[in-house]
Amino acid sequence: MTDLISIVDTLCRTPRVGWLQRGVADAESVCAHSMLVALLAGEIAAQLNAEGVDVDIKEVLAVATVHDLAESVLGHPGREVRERLRWEEVEEEVFKREFPHLAELFRMYRYETNLVGRVVSFADKLATLIRACRYRKMGYDTGDLVKNLYLKLSKYDDLAHLLEFYVSKYCGSLV
Amino acid sequence: MTDLISIVDTLCRTPRVGWLQRGVADAESVCAHSMLVALLAGEIAAQLNAEGVDVDIKEVLAVATVHDLAESVLGHPGREVRERLRWEEVEEEVFKREFPHLAELFRMYRYETNLVGRVVSFADKLATLIRACRYRKMGYDTGDLVKNLYLKLSKYDDLAHLLEFYVSKYCGSLV
Amino acid sequence: MTDLISIVDTLCRTPRVGWLQRGVADAESVCAHSMLVALLAGEIAAQLNAEGVDVDIKEVLAVATVHDLAESVLGHPGREVRERLRWEEVEEEVFKREFPHLAELFRMYRYETNLVGRVVSFADKLATLIRACRYRKMGYDTGDLVKNLYLKLSKYDDLAHLLEFYVSKYCGSLV
Amino acid sequence: MTDLISIVDTLCRTPRVGWLQRGVADAESVCAHSMLVALLAGEIAAQLNAEGVDVDIKEVLAVATVHDLAESVLGHPGREVRERLRWEEVEEEVFKREFPHLAELFRMYRYETNLVGRVVSFADKLATLIRACRYRKMGYDTGDLVKNLYLKLSKYDDLAHLLEFYVSKYCGSLV
Amino acid sequence: MTDLISIVDTLCRTPRVGWLQRGVADAESVCAHSMLVALLAGEIAAQLNAEGVDVDIKEVLAVATVHDLAESVLGHPGREVRERLRWEEVEEEVFKREFPHLAELFRMYRYETNLVGRVVSFADKLATLIRACRYRKMGYDTGDLVKNLYLKLSKYDDLAHLLEFYVSKYCGSLV
Amino acid sequence: MTDLISIVDTLCRTPRVGWLQRGVADAESVCAHSMLVALLAGEIAAQLNAEGVDVDIKEVLAVATVHDLAESVLGHPGREVRERLRWEEVEEEVFKREFPHLAELFRMYRYETNLVGRVVSFADKLATLIRACRYRKMGYDTGDLVKNLYLKLSKYDDLAHLLEFYVSKYCGSLV
Asked: Rounded mean pLDDT of E97-111?
């Protein structure tokens, strides 16, 4: 599938299954998620720059934009499917085959091979966390995800202050 | 996930990824597919009865209705994901855990353990074939699927006349 | 209209008008309702079996799946329209004409001619009740329906314990 | 139901069932139809004025806008349901009860009591005809409707030139 | 763009951007808004008539129905775009060019040249206010709009009792 | 509006008005367009690299991803609105205020200040061209846009071979 229109439309019409399973009526698509990760990662990179940390905003945006492209081929299966596969390797294999010119960017994110990839990986989880908080505010049961993601994000010690900032802004007293 | 409302809504909001990848704008959901399989299988069973073949319409409808329930947990991933797993076994495992009272019905379909299961398995592929023909009529490129499914369906020798009937009705001169 | 694809798509694109009239943004379709009735009825039959009551799960699933098929022809009009017609007879007439091989199943449900039909008729009302509870949780005014349906369901004496179980699970303290 | 928001949203979320039954994926809602009737009727009235015929554009727009309001209560059932009822009388009864201040406008349209009502009744059928032509162009089978409506519209002798104009513009050589 | 079908469909598929910016999932379209303004304005005119004030219900309905037609050409841009243009004049220019036979109606509304236009202009703001209240009830942050519109509507001294009636009915204790 | 979730959702729920005006039923959103521009621009940059031209793929992806962010504030108005404003300057002003850390990227694209911006600007038009071709294939009248965009793209002399490649792939013999 190298038709770029079909790739984009698949991503923009694929709802993230975790939201569906929690009853969300108009669930976030994979492409909306990718855009949110990009904007979050860009803001975070800008903030890190302001704190004197050197990380390229443009690289962060690029990696975030493409990080879920393999889902145009693989779809967005449930957590149980991912856990039964070496999902990272499957994604990478698809990436190399379908988007060879972008495979290096994918690897940064997936294996957190540098600060750019680390920021995107953090933003990926954070985007899901703040979306879960938003859905919770609308009455959906996403509390399990909120807790689970907060725990994972807490392990990025050097970004702890950013986690607190975003949680405070988007989750209020919910975490 | 034993909340029946969330299970149904997940199935009715999950587009089948094969259609998305072929550019379909308003792709068939998993629950619309299940309903189509049920109606097709019911018609086929009635026709077989008329031909003197003994197959229970009610059993056929029941098996068809539940045959994709595991996708409420697993989602509807792309073909490549299914091929990398023993998808049948994964589905069965989920079925046994989440819908133990329906697991026997799933096995009939999946392993074609009797004529009921065989009819549903045939109707499952046929439902996808005639949908592919309908999408092709609207301008989408589904020709590969049409050919592929026709080949698989041709192997059900005893149902060959039904294959011809449905192809003639829904695909016109397209196969 | 004997085109099965159009029949299914009509059912899956027809919102139940009672939800629209109560302001629901993404209202349950007729086919999502049918699927929910099937899953509920299947669970109930399994529970009855466990209690020593003999009712065939497969028959229950079959009847539930087809019980609203006539709406593919009739649409899903408001309550007032149904009350001005002998709606049951209209449905049966359409059923006999369009789906003669399934008309017997419809009659079981509509006239509760046996335990299978009785369970499906109970599950039909119960599916609407628990959906009304879910919508109420999201902020929609469905209180009148909740009360009204609970009253009707209370008349199934032998299924009273099941009514309590489902109301407790899906409606919380709302009834 | 006197909540105006729910009334409007019901009309704007109710797909016209005739399109669904012909397989249309994104079927026209009742409120989109009402708007189309209003714009058509307004254009026709302006043209009649230019030809020296006296008909009030504002009255025509008003009557067209409200002509289907009763469907917020009744829904939009299939043709067979309408034929089994005295649909006109049911609509009028609902109109008088729910929108007493607009009931006079409804009567103009329904019984073509004056030229204003006659123009709206003509525009109502014409709006459905040109929509059927548009859907046919997209690949849907609406030929039966096109023929049927053209025949009905041909009976408005004094508006025959307008029928030809609109058919030529929206249906091309399809009629 | 004089294709009436495209005009209507553009209006019915254009979400009002202010709702999107406040996070509304299934935002009101321009045509749903126009229909709501028409119903509100019609009710208000009927009430004014009952109070002995002379205002033509049909004219009010007609003006309300067409008041946003120019958005089929201009789209529905954000507030900042409107403020940078003489939006009223742009709308009027488009109206004169695309809908010359309706331009007089537009002017009544836009410049409140008579009581009919004044009622529609009031109903336009009121429709947005009560919709904002409805969205707030569903959990969206529309408080700023509610306050802002209430202030503007308070300036219609002679309609103050109607403002209170509608706010009480649709906004409860929220204003 | 600095709520990133609302920004993304506004972009992903805003249909591009040009498609609506040409009758497209399920029109491309602004965020789907941005994603398509990013993938196209990334492919083009990779191809240019293969030809020995030095352009950073990551920068191209980053600029493409953010190039329409101002539309989260401004909406996506019709062509006529844009022409009446110095649209470029309005976008830049919004960008500087809302996304100061990304304003430099916007300027590259808008004023084609370097090869990165030039490639994104080319890909922006090309994404619209190939989408117009796709819609034309489905039966929508987009021929005017196809011609108009092809003319504009023809002025990028150094990218002429890429224009031919993409037109041949996505538009067939339609240009």
From this structure: 97
Q: How far apart are alpha carbons C42 and C57 in whole angstroms?
A: 6
Cα separation, E126 vs F134, whole angstroms: 41
Q: Average pLDDT of chain B? A: 96
Domains of chain C: 4-174 (1.10.3210.10)
pLDDT digits (tens, 9 = 90+) for A120-154: 999 999 999 999 999 999 999 999 999 999 999 99
Residue B29 phi/psi, 5-degree rounding, is -85, 170
* Residues C25-66 pLDDT 10s: 999 999 999 999 999 999 999 999 999 999 999 999 999 999
* pLDDT above 60 for B174: no
Alpha-helical (H) ranges within chain D are 4-13, 17-21, 30-50, 57-66, 71-74, 79-84, 87-98, 103-111, 115-137, 143-153, 160-171
Task: Choose the closest CB to D35 out of E11, E45, E170.
Answer: E11
Distance from the first to the final alpha carbon of chain C: 41
Question: Which residues are CB-contacts of A84 (< 8 A; sequence separation ≥ 6)?
Answer: B85, B90
Chain E residues contacting A, CB < 8 Å?
A: 23, 25-26, 138-139
CA dihedral B141, B144, B147, B151 (to 10 degrees): -150
Query: Is E2's pLDDT higher than 90?
Result: no
Long-range contacts of B80-89 (CB under 8 A, 24+ apart): B80/A73, B80/A74, B80/A90, B80/A94, B81/A74, B81/A75, B81/A77, B81/A81, B81/A85, B81/A90, B84/A85, B84/A90, B85/A81, B85/A84, B85/A85
Beta bridge pairs of residue B147: none
Show the tokens assigned to C22: 């109560």
Long-range contacts of F94-98 (CB under 8 A, 24+ apart): F94/E80, F94/F70, F95/F69, F95/F70, F98/F1, F98/F2, F98/F69, F98/F70, F98/F72, F98/F73
Look at residue A1 and tell me whether its pLDDT is greater than 60.
no
Output the pLDDT for position E83: 94
Q: Name the minimum distance, in Å, from the CA of B137 to any CA of chain C.
A: 13
Name the CA radius of gyration of chain B, rounded. Answer: 16
d(CA D14, CA D33): 11
What is the pLDDT confidence band of residue E1, given thresholds at 50, 70 and 90? low
Q: Could you say which DSSP state residue A102 is in?
A: G
SS3 at position A112: coil
In this model, does residue D35 exceed pLDDT 70?
yes
Cα-flanking dihedrals φ and ψ of residue E145, to 5°?
Answer: -65, -45
Maximum alpha-carbon separation in chain C:
45
Q: ipTM value of the model? A: 0.96
User: For residues A100 and A105, what is the distance between their CA atoms, to the nearest angstrom?
Assistant: 10
**Which residues of C lie inside 8 Å of B (Cβ-Cβ)?**
3-5, 7-9, 11-12, 29, 31-32, 34-36, 38-40, 42-43, 45-46, 49, 56-66, 69, 101-102, 105, 130-131, 134, 170
List the structure tokens of A170: 């988007």
- pLDDT at residue F174, as a whole number: 57
Instruction: Name every residue in C having a CB less than 8 A away from some CB of E.
Output: 23, 25-26, 138-139
Chains E+B touching (3+ CB pairs under 8 Å): no
State the DSSP string of B10-58: HHHH-B-HHHHHTT-TTPPBHHHHHHHHHHHHHHHHHHHHHTT----HH
Beta-bridge partners for B29: B15
**Can you list the alpha helix ranges (DSSP code H) found in E14-172?**
17-21, 30-50, 57-66, 71-74, 79-84, 87-98, 103-111, 115-137, 143-154, 160-171
pLDDT score recorded for residue F173? 72
C155, with CB counted inside 10 A (0-12, 13-18, 19+), is: exposed
Q: Which of D58, D64, D57 is nearest to D30 (CA)?
A: D64
